[in-house]
Amino acid sequence: GSLFYPQADRQQYLYLYGAGGEGKGAIVRLLADIFGRSFRSEDATMATNNRFWTAGLLGKRLVAFPDTNYASFLRTGLLKSLTGGDAVRMERKNQDSGSSKLTAKFMFVSNKIPDIGGESADTRRIIYCPMLPQKLKHDPQYQEKLWEEAPTIISFCKAAYRQVCPTHGLIPV
C-alpha cells in the first residue's frame, strides 16, 4: 500500500522468498502492469558493476529484482544509500555526474533466503515475506485472474497501510 503514497518512508524494502511456484513472479508482473513506466526491473549484479546504473532509477516508484541470486546485495552500502532518502550519485554516459533524490521503493524476489546478518542497519530495512507453497494445480489463467482482482487487492493494501502507518513512518514488521 505504501507504494501509492509519495510521502511514505522509503527506508524499507520488500523481500519475497519462496522455493518456486508460489506466485512471486505473478505479483511482480501485476505490479509492473499497475505502475507502467514508473516500474523498473533490475539485476542486482549490474548495480555494483555499472557506474551508470543509478541513473536508470530516476522517476521510478518501484524497482524490482526478480529471481535475484545476489542476496548479499542487501548488505551493501549502495542499497543503504538507495533506501536512505539522501541524494544518490548519478552519472549518465558522456555527461557530468551529479546526485538526485529517488522516489523508488525496492522489492527483491528470490529462491534464496536473504543474507542480511544481524546488524540493525540491515534488519530494520527488510520486510521479509516467505511465500507458502501453492497447493493448487497450475492455472494458465492465473495472471489474468490476478489482474481482475487487482482493484480489490490494491484497495485492501492501501487501507492496511493507512491503518498501520497514518503518519507514513516505517511499516511495522
Summarize the structure.
The protein is of the alpha/beta class and 173 residues long. It is built from 5 helices and 7 strands. The strands form 2 sheets. Strands 2-3-6-1-7 form a 5-stranded parallel beta sheet, with helices on one face. It has a two-stranded antiparallel sheet with strand order 4-5.
Report on the architecture of this protein.
The protein has 173 residues and is α/β, with parallel strands linked by helices. Helix content is 30%, strand content 17%. The protein contains five helices and seven strands. It has helices at residues 24-35, 44-49, 77-83, 120-123, 142-164, and strands at 13-17, 39-41, 62-65, 88-90, 98-100, 105-110, 126-130. The strands form two sheets. Strands 2-3-6-1-7 form a five-stranded parallel β-sheet, covered by helices on one side. Strands 4-5 form a two-stranded antiparallel sheet. The two termini are 14 Å apart.
Give the distance, in angstroms, between the N- and C-terminal Cα atoms: 14 Å
The overall average pLDDT, rounded, is 91
* Radius of gyration, CA atoms, in whole angstroms: 16 Å
Strand content: 15-25%
Number of distinct beta strands: 7
The biggest sheet, with number of strands, parallel, antiparallel or mixed sense and barrel status, is: 5 strands, parallel
Shape: globular
Biggest sheet strand order reads 2-3-6-1-7
Could you state the order of secondary-structure elements as H and E?
A: EHEHEHEEEHEH
Which structural class do the helices and strands define? alpha/beta
Count of helical regions: 5
> Are there runs of 5+ residues with pLDDT below 50, and where?
none
The helicity comes to 25-40%
